[in-house]
Amino acid sequence: MHSLAFACPAGTPVSTADAVACMTSATDPVTLAEALSGGNADDWLLAIDDEMNNLIGMDVYEIVDKPPGVKLIPVKWVFKTKYDAFGTLEKYTCSPSCAFSVPF
Q: Would you say the C-alpha torsion 63, 37, 71, 66 has a positive or negative sign?
């Protein structure tokens, strides 16, 4: 039977429990303002740009002017830091989320 071994960036081995705790305790931004004002603002901005380009490229929606008298659906960005199986930062991801409980 094989056991998993994890190492921090400096190469020091860490326990599996510590590696899992590290991967799951990342403090991802909760708001767009947090994402764009933190130390990883450039990474989050690239993730937002990538997601917007994907949505536009797949013709999910088009950007238009708001018609008068129309109520907009609020959109919130959800940010997530992704790690690989070894606990190494893989990428920053984000996606828009709509609050469909808003009455129309």
A: negative
Positive or negative: CA dihedral 40, 79, 6, 18: positive
Q: Across the strands, what pairs with 75?
A: 98
DSSP type of residue 94: E
pLDDT at residue 92 above 90?
A: yes
Cα gap 102→79, rounded to integer Å: 22
Residue keyed to tokens 């999910």: 60
Quote the CA–CA distance of 80 and 78 in Å, as a whole number.
7
The pair of structure tokens assigned to 83 is 């790690």
Distance CA 30, CA 69 (A): 30
pLDDT for the residue numbered 36: 94
List, for residues 44-89, the tens digit of each pLDDT value.
999 999 999 998 899 887 788 999 999 888 888 999 999 888 888 9
pTM of the entire structure?
Answer: 0.66
